[in-house]
Specification:
- This protein starts with a helix and ends in a 10-residue tail after the last strand.
- It is elongated and about 60 Å long.
- By secondary structure, the chain is mostly helical.
- Helices cover 70% and strands 3% of the residues.
- Helix 6 crosses helix 8.
- The chain has a domain of 145 residues: Tetracycline Repressor, domain 2 (Orthogonal Bundle), CATH 1.10.357.
Amino acid sequence: MSRPRGDHDERREVISRAAAAVIAERGLERLTLRDLAAELGVTTGALTHYFPSKDALVAHTKELVFDARYARARLAAEQAEGRERLHAVVEELLPLDDERRTSWRVLVAFRGSAVGSAELRRAHAVRMRRWFALFESLVTPLAPADRGGARTDVAELGMAVALLVEGMAIHFAMLEPPLPSSRQVAFARTQIARLLSAADAGGGRTTRTAGRRRVSAP
């Protein structure tokens, strides 16, 4: 009798999470199906039942890690309002614990491998558009009101915050020893406040209320 689909998907997730831990500790190039099978206490053939190749496993692991981070960020956004909504998302994304630190180290490994792969670069661009859209929705209520026929370009402001958060998260995830959570949060709040204040003061890019197309994510 065939194994239920739910069990199959659950096993694929277990394998991918184990692969993520290896990638975070040793790097993407040192991940092999043989070594991963040994760590899981199974045969290589058992792994290839779920993933026919290392590339298939890597692709699934990458999506699993990103989707988990994105889903938790969206959930955090639903549990606060105003500027605290933005802070809640940022603090969910920062590597404040081992699980999130592992996730960011895995994503760093994938970014390095994307340099020589057009397919991985396209996948990265799709993921970044999702980040930009999420942060645009977070900063839109915080953008200053129109002044003199100009308004803050919320798409560009959202992109700026998203890139700031990603840069901070990657840097903090790679630090040894890890930066204390309280310092990560304090630093992030200070830098985001500066970005928002610059937009409020008119220091950021503005667009005319008519006739100018907003920036779209690459």
